[in-house]
Amino acid sequence: MIGVGQAAKRLGVILVFALVVVAAANLRAEQRPAAAHNTVSPDSCPRSTFRVVVDVGHTLDVPGALSARGVPEYAFNLQLARDAAQALRDAGFEQTALLITGTAPRRGLVERAVRANNMRANLFIAIHHDSVPDNLKQDWEYAGLKNQFNDDYPGYALFISNDNADPAASLQFGSALGHELESRGLRYTPHYTLALMGHRRRILVDAKNGVYRYDQLIVLRQTKMPAVLLEAGSIVNRQEELELGTVERRSLTSAAIVAAVEQFCAARSRPASTRAAAASAH
Ligand SMILES: [Zn+2]
Fold it and tell me: Going by DSSP bridges, is the β-strand pair 123-130/138-142 parallel, antiparallel, or unpaired?
């Protein structure tokens, strides 16, 4: 049996102990930002107000390229863009907007840029899946139907436009996204530099991370915020098409997008003087 006085004394000891624990926890919490002061902490990014527009490439009626097994590109774009937008929201980017357009090109392309501009988006990401020019395709039969494929150029590709309002920041984000994709085991396709690409040949501006220049792209040149187009992989490649259809591949790409957005947002949130110092340190 414990007397009332003794119980009160014990309670007092417990309370003092609890207060010490709370105070210690507070001290640690206060020390944390100070310790991370000189590194680019993703926490310096104002996630709840940073708006990313994830644009679903093509339309339901004009669905883009056909995969090696006859599935329209739009279906791949819609699935990946949905997953990426959800991953961004789950990471705290609540303002993320999924952009679905019903209007056919060219008007539909202008409309995408206008909508992103009106939303005052901080970043524009167009989601596409790659094919090759018709003369590089071969015939094969799948499920009893004639289809076309090209197994030579798997991998993702990123595009930016020097006619965008902020080409330097577009490249910065493109490089960050390429780096995140590479670090997850994905590889970019170098075939856009080849002569056989004809008028689709592009200049590789970041050979490490797979970023090309494509100045004329309407969604990149008419957007007033940094903008990047991602070809997430080749759907005419018979092996990669199967991978691109899996939740695992979409999760991998979505995670790379989230990581790149976090870095980009944090870098943009730093004071201009620190940003310049970081840029010259490269
Ligand atoms: Zn496309």
Answer: unpaired
Q: Ligand 1 centre and the CA of 141: distance in Å?
A: 23
CA of 206 to the centre of ligand 1 (A): 21
Query: pLDDT for 80-109, tens place per residue?
Result: 999 999 999 999 999 999 999 999 999 999
Q: Which two tokens stand for residue 50?
A: 């940073």
- Residue 34: is its pLDDT beyond 80? no
Share of the chain residues as helix, strand and coil, in percent rounded to the nearest 5:
50, 15, 35
Indicate whether 140 pLDDT > 50: yes
Q: Which helix (H) or strand (E) holds 232?
A: strand 227-234
Distances (CA, A) of 144 to 69, 141, 147, 238, 241: 11, 6, 9, 16, 18
Residues 6+ apart with CB under 8 A from 189: 130, 153, 154, 155, 156, 157, 210, 234
Identify any residues that bridge with 142 across adjacent strands, giving them in sequence order: 145
**Cβ atoms 146, 250 nearer than 8 A:** no
Ligand 1 (ion): residues with CB under 5 Å are 57, 64, 128
